[in-house]
Design brief:
By secondary structure, the chain is an alpha/beta fold. The protein is about 45% helix and about 20% strand. It has a domain at about 40-175 and about 270-355: Rossmann fold, CATH 3.40.50.1820. It has 15 helices and 13 strands. Strands 1, 2, 3, 6, 7, 8, 11, 12 and 13 form a nine-stranded mixed β-sheet that branches. The chain has a two-stranded antiparallel sheet with strand order 4-5. A two-stranded antiparallel sheet has the order 9-10. α6 packs antiparallel against α10. The longest helix is centred in the first third of the chain and has 28 residues, at about 1-30. The relative contact order is 0.15.
């Protein structure tokens, strides 16, 4: 009797696992469509592939100065507006900030010669000038994420007159420690970026995606899917999972010359910290930054280790500067539940103290 009962239980359990594996296979083979980037916005400026989005205000009295978010040239910017309740954009707009975002678009082969100087002077600066004109403010608050944080810092260093407040998120600034695999892989002893870009023109999206995935192979190829299997019946988990998977797999190339300069002059030669970086034929001096600075650092960031971001505050001349080190990973700064509940309310409080409300 007991062997028969035991056998029946084993059969039922095997059938249950088989059913779950089939469901898992079907979901991963044909991703459900998930709505992302839903905060309403208007395109207020275009240049080449770039779009400048202005998010439709949700309150009558806006805070000033307006906020311009500079995202990285890698991946899509809707990670900052992934889902309702998991959106930096939504948080800022709901608090009354007149919020703009640069969507760099997808560079083509014709864009391979776009340099970091071009992105600063022909794109970011044009956006800043338009925002200043439209808002009636003579300065903006810059928020830069990852590579966009580095670009925002360089912009502020050369155009401090335009920047009222500077917020950088998980921004690579100091590359001296060579901490982390990405810094090792990009070392000039192992990676000839000149030949790489000469061969490909632009940096291919697959190369970038696999580089990021291989930084944590166990988590990205095993743990993620065992967790997915365990929570197959959790609809909210599935919605969040596929929103993230939509973004993770929505990769874009990076304009070749900008990528080459970023890797060669920053990752490999650390010119920004050494005061040797040049944009628009002029040195980029971080000590020229004297506006209020907020540096958001992800404690568990394996992409941009804290040691690369923290030194920034010692390199600027600002008297008003602060670091918030948050217990999250690189992406968790923008979509983590803790970031939404704790970090971004703190960021808004910091901005509130350095902003004013329009009449």
């Amino acid at each position: 009797m007991f062997p028969d009962v035991f056998s029946q239980m084993m059969v039922k359990e095997a059938e249950s696992h088989l059913s779950k594996f089939k469901k898992m296979r079907d979901l991963l083979t044909d991703f459900p469509k998930v709505k992302v980037g839903q905060t309403p916005s208007d395109v207020v400026f275009r240049k080449n592939k770039m779009k400048l989005l202005r998010y439709i205000p949700q309150v009558e009295k806006l805070r000033k100065p307006p906020v311009l978010i500079v995202y990285a040239l890698v991946n899509r910017p809707y990670i900052l507006d992934l889902q309702s309740g998991r959106s930096v954009i939504q948080t800022l707009v709901s608090k009354g900030y007149d919020t703009y975002l640069i969507d760099w678009g997808v560079p083509s082969d014709f864009d391979k010669h776009i340099s970091l100087t071009d992105y600063q002077e022909k794109y970011i600066r044009r956006c800043v000038e338009l925002i200043k004109r439209n808002s009636g403010c003579d300065k903006v608050t810059l928020i830069g994420y990852c590579m966009g944080g580095t670009m925002s810092a360089m912009y502020a260093a050369q155009h401090q007159q335009d920047v009222k407040n500077l917020v950088i998120m998980a921004a690579p600034i100091d590359f001296a420690s060579r901490e982390g695999l990405l810094y090792l892989w990009s070392d000039k002893k192992f990676f000839d970026v000149d030949k790489f870009i000469e061969t490909y023109g632009n940096c291919p999206p697959d190369f970038l995606q696999w580089s990021f995935l291989l930084l944590k192979p166990v988590q990205n190829f095993i743990s993620k899917y065992t967790g997915f299997y365990d929570r197959l019946e959790d609809d909210k988990f599935l919605e969040n999972f596929f929103a993230m998977e939509t973004w993770v797999n929505d990769n874009i190339p990076v304009a070749g010359e900008a990528y080459r300069e970023f890797i060669k002059y920053l990752f490999q030669e650390n010119r920004l910290v050494r005061g040797e970086m040049k944009l628009n034929n002029a040195p980029v001096k971080l000590q020229n930054i004297n506006c209020p600075v907020l540096n958001l650092v992800a404690e568990k960031d394996f992409l941009v280790p804290p040691g690369s971001s923290v030194p920034f505050n010692d390199l600027v001349s600002s008297a008003d500067k602060e670091i918030i080190t948050f217990p999250s990973g690189h992406i968790g700064l923008s979509v983590g539940s803790g970031a939404m509940k704790i970090l971004w309310p703190k960021v808004c409080q910091w901005l509130d103290a350095r902003s004013e409300t329009t009449n």
